[in-house]
Amino acid sequence: MSLEKGMIDRKSAEAQDRFIPGVASAQKGIDRDSRTVDGVASTINIDRDGESILPSAFKARAQKFLASNSPFAAAHTHRSPDGTPTQIGWIMGMDIDSEKVGAKFQFAKTNLAEEWWKLASDPKGKGIAFSIGFIPMEWASGSVAELSREFPEIRQAVKAAGLADDDRLRVYTDIELLEISGVMAPSNRESLQLLSAKMFGREKQAEDFAAAIVELMGKAMDERMARVEDKIVLLNDRVAQLREAMHPEDDFSNCLSPEERGEELPDPPSGKKSPAPRGGGRGGEGSKGGAYEEASRKAQALLG
Fold first, then answer.
1. Are 65 and 10 members of one domain?
2. Could you tell me if residue 205 is left (phi over 0), alpha (psi between -120 and 50 degrees) or otherwise beta?
3. Which domain holds residue 297?
4. 225 shares its domain with 143
5. One domain for residues 65 and 130
6. What are the pLDDT digits (tens) for 259-279?
7. pTM above 0.85?
8. pLDDT tens-digit profile of 52-97?
């Protein structure tokens, strides 16, 4: 079996933000005057998904990242609902060796940054954890034995993770760093942060998760449609009752006066009054006005 290697197009669907849990910073390296903290942003260790980022994967684009805004963000939150900044500072420098990627974090003076600074600089605390947001550019996938021969620098990390030679592993050999975040270090392997943050190489899990959501939405829609159909049936019954109460076979046109029907009355003979319409108009004795009022009362009772 040979190694599988790949490159990812910057504009492809696979080229999306990935997040890797980092490690807590030590208390040394805190400068309260300059509001800076030294910490470890990434290591060569095998993560929960059976993946590793080589520290050398940062080198090609590290200087370009540092020359940019080099954002230090809060928990990979790239935007807030009300538009307030989620950036809590900047990455001022990076130190890359064979085992890890260190960084110097400069804290801003916003309200959100102040909360993170309190956690990081608390003399009685344990520092904060860091996590990188990146786009994978190149990778190699294969068995632990194959990858250990190709990348000898991962052997100690493989041993620490307790992996067998035939276990599968993916190694990122080139990435584009987007930001580094302050995060809590989750101990739960199935935490939501990991699920939403890093799905690369776990397409089946993502598909199952999406299918479950679709199924739940389908059931909810079916239940809602059933309630709507019941209301439609009830409404149709009420309409039928109204039609029956209104006696549609009756001709109510005779209940209207000639003026209401839009008819022109002939001029009365000189000195004589125009006779009243036959039936006494709407509601008159012996006319269909009584039926009209009765139907109206029934309709109001049904609708009431």
1. yes
2. alpha
3. 214-303
4. no
5. yes
6. 655 666 666 666 555 555 544
7. no
8. 999 999 999 999 999 999 999 998 888 888 888 999 999 999 999 9
